[in-house]
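Students often ask what a holo structure prediction actually looks like on paper. The answer is less mysterious than it sounds. You provide the chain, you provide the ligand, and the output is a string of discrete structure tokens encoding the 3D arrangement of the protein together with inosinic acid.
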Amino acid sequence: MSASKESCVTAVVGAQWGDEGKGKLVHLLSRNFDLVVRYQGGENAGHTVETDGQTYRFRLLPSGILYSHVTAVLGRGMVVNPISLAAEIDELSTQGAFRGKLIVDRGIQLVLRAHQLQDQYSEEAKDIGGLAVGTTRRGIGPAYADKHFRVGIKAGDLLRPRAELRQMFCSDITRKNALFAGYYGQPQGDAGELWAEFEPAIEKIAPYIADAVSLVMVAKEKCRPILCEGAQGVLLDLDYGTYPYVTSSHPGIAGALSGTGINWTDIGEVIGVTKAYTTRVGNGPFPTEELGPLGELMRERGAEYGTVTKRPRRCGWLDLVLLKYAREVVGITKWAVTKVDVLDELSEILSCNFYVQSDHMAGPTLNPEMDRLGDYLPRYSRLSGWNCDTTQCRRYADLPSALINYLKHIEVATKTPVAFVSVGPATDAVVWIGAEQVAMAEA
Ligand code: IMP
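The corresponding structure tokens follow.
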């Protein structure tokens, strides 16, 4: 898969509550792209790439950076902690995999230690009323809040004279300290100590700060292929997700547009990534959650523990009502279905086709109304499991017929073809599906 001449941009978007396996797909696709641009979120995301006997961990950088031809871009819609970015660059450099082809957009809002404290204090305060979101405590919400409040520090500010920057930094801490002491009744940050922790990161990052929007525009003019990498997933979208149990950014295509300088006419394919089942970390409704042994099986076989916080992920069946919603909200043109091998041992697979409400009336089919999601009961289709090892499958013809049926079931329900199936953690454990092999139901 590569970008076409007319539309040089492909986007990879999470269609569930994050952790769908976007990183592996982005890594594979990056071979065919010149620019790989991450457009939202920050170090609340995380994924691991295992290739050529090495393991690489990513939080902020797009994994495309492993290819020497790729320029990795941190787009304007992200929030970036410079200390963490410097550490990630150091780690990759130690592994001999950082070649410096990195652009950090100057408009990026920075995440400071004070934002992380604020995230922690806010979660602790909400927890008293049982209302904690279950954030990653990486300061993401407070950094986006400051951006919307039009205060804080941008990546471009790191290029200011040092004394000026220090003054900005200290007045930011003063503002936060008033909030910590007055509102949360929590310990304040020491501006001197926090600056000492922050300052070394400036030199590390400064060489990569530039106007990424100009870079993207020039690349588009030359029809250079651009891959947009989303973090988290549509169901965690601030507006279209299960608010308030969401992240503070827009993981869908709207985020790709506002977070990169790409416009809607540039977009070609939008690949929605979904697991063959569903997971969620943190609090909030999850209609198809399996609290018993089946959920446990998915968690253990799928190693479903958060990459950032190590929290066990909640697991359950695939929810086609939510996938249809994700397709609709984002404009997904193809699916990538990941971790099908996790279901290899099951003789029966369930997938939720519609909801009923507590009064037994049918739930909405088009827009499940995210704020009411907790009131719905899932109604399942029961499909035959494939009950065999799929981890060695590399071609469509290798896939067991029950798995092909399952994929078709997804395609028919969502009216969107499956283009990519992941059958194991290894980079090459994938099956690419050509359009001709997929029986698409007519609308
Ligand atoms: P925050 O993004 O740290 O503010 O967390 C808000 C919600 O989004 C919490 O439920 C987190 O668990 C969830 N979340 C944030 N990033 C990810 C991710 O990369 N994968 C899955 N869940 C995430």
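The mean pLDDT is 94.
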